[in-house]
Amino acid sequence: MDELLTYRKEFPILQHTTYMISHSLGAMPRQVYERLHEYADMWATRGIRAWEEGWWEMPVTTGDKIARILGADPGSVVVHQNVSICQSIILSCFNLRQKRNKIVYEALNFPSVMYVYAAHAKAADARVVEVPSTDGITIDTERLLAAIDEETLLVPISHVLFKSGYLQDAQAVIDKAHAVGARVVLDVYQSAGTVPIDVKQLQVDFVVGGSVKWLCGGPGAGYLYVHPALRRQLEPQVTGWMAHRAPFAFEPSEITYADDIHRFLHGSPAIATLYAAESGYDIINEIGVERIRAKSVRQTTRLIELADEQGWRVNSPRDPAKRGGTVVVDVPHAAAVVQELARREVLVDSRPGAGIRIAPHFYTEDRELDLTIKEIRNILDSRAYERYL
Ligand SMILES: Cc1ncc(COP(=O)(O)O)c(C=O)c1O
């Protein structure tokens, strides 16, 4: 008996699709309809008073729900629009025009993160060190550690790689970075909600992530955690009045930063997306990530067995301790197969050079694993993918 299946009824899309794409867009909780109605009601009936009755504080109060998922204290996470802007805020706290100006990350980092760091580094003549992957699936931890030295400023890495589902040894990276005076920015977009995270144990400097995927929170709710001990040492240049100690004093000229996590906000928040995002966090917190992980390990292991039976190459780690929630299978014409699968109400995606990404989540039935593999087999055998080539 799989107790987590009782949550299936909370997700309307599961009634008519095989939803194996939570690494890309988690299913929408039914409750979101009500929360968005609540938002509209608040605006319609409370008007301007809504700001002081909850809206103004929402980037932090919503952040508290995410903090629970990360093992962080309340008041240590703020919600922004996405990971890219969170990375820019972090970068804006540091001076890249100094001897310690090296940015080190893995070659399989999420490209948008690379764009942010590479652009800033270029403008400031700083150095970016990209640690290569020899197999396109994993990153050699020793090699990554060796690249982090006394001239390294920041190490922005993905906890779980988007392309292969490889789960990095974040602790080893954080320990090495701290030993040489560097800071780590851990992007947990592909791990939070499916792999347990304990920021206190990790002692990580920054955490960024978003809600679109495993957290089932929809687009527009990226988040930023800053280690409490680090907070007051930093002065973000990407800033705004919400980061001011007394925003409603409307003081002109230079900002006086808030001492708490508000320091990492900027301008007026996107309130509707916060209403939409919270239902997913509530469900994840209610279940607990440990239980989600146990099921994910069981189902991803089964998926690998099924792919092996078909003779397809698996482009994800076989060791569950090194794997997040996604299994990537390399089949011919992956992008076209994905389109035909969608027509058949089986939702997955593909990434160039990797294959089809398949992700069960806590709401996935075991029979859906078999069905997904069976449909791929059928599409390949019948050449039904050809119409998309
Ligand atoms: C590891 C990782 N980081 C970041 C992102 C997305 O970044 P953003 O929130 O800026 O769109 C993704 C989404 O696909 C991702 O997988």
- The CATH architecture of the largest domain can be named as 3-Layer(aba) Sandwich
List the helices and strands in order. EHHHEHEHEHEHEHEEHHHEEHEEEH
Strand content: 5-15%
User: Structural class of the secondary structure composition?
Assistant: alpha/beta
User: What small molecules does this complex bind?
Assistant: pyridoxal-5'-phosphate
Mean pLDDT over the full residue set: 97
CATH topology of the largest domain: Aspartate Aminotransferase, domain 2
Strand order in the largest sheet: 2-8-7-6-5-3-4
The level of helicity is 25-40%
How many independent structural domains?
2
Give the overall shape.
Answer: globular
How many beta strands in the DSSP annotation?
13
Total of DSSP H or I helical runs spanning 4+ residues: 13
CATH-defined superfamily of the largest domain: Type I PLP-dependent aspartate aminotransferase-like (Major domain)
Uncertain segments of ≥5 residues (pLDDT<50)? Answer: none
Strand count, sense and barrel status of the largest sheet are: 7 strands, mixed
Distance between the termini: 42 Å
Note down, in words, how this protein is organized.
The protein is an alpha/beta fold and 389 residues long. It folds into two domains: 3-23 and 288-388, Aspartate Aminotransferase, domain 1 (Alpha-Beta Complex); 31-285, Aspartate Aminotransferase, domain 2. It has helices at 31-46, 51-55, 58-70, 83-91, 111-124, 141-147, 170-179, 199-202, 228-231, 271-287, 289-310, 334-343, 366-382, and strands spanning 18-19, 77-80, 102-106, 127-131, 152-158, 183-187, 206-209, 222-226, 313-314, 327-330, 346-347, 349-351, 355-358. The strands form three sheets. A seven-stranded mixed sheet has the order 2-8-7-6-5-3-4, sandwiched between helices. The protein has a four-stranded antiparallel sheet with strand order 9-10-13-12, with helices on one face. A hairpin with a 3-residue loop joins strand 12 and strand 13 (355-358). Helix 3 (58-70) runs parallel beside helix 10 (271-287) and helix 12 packs across helix 13. The longest helix has 22 residues, at 289-310.
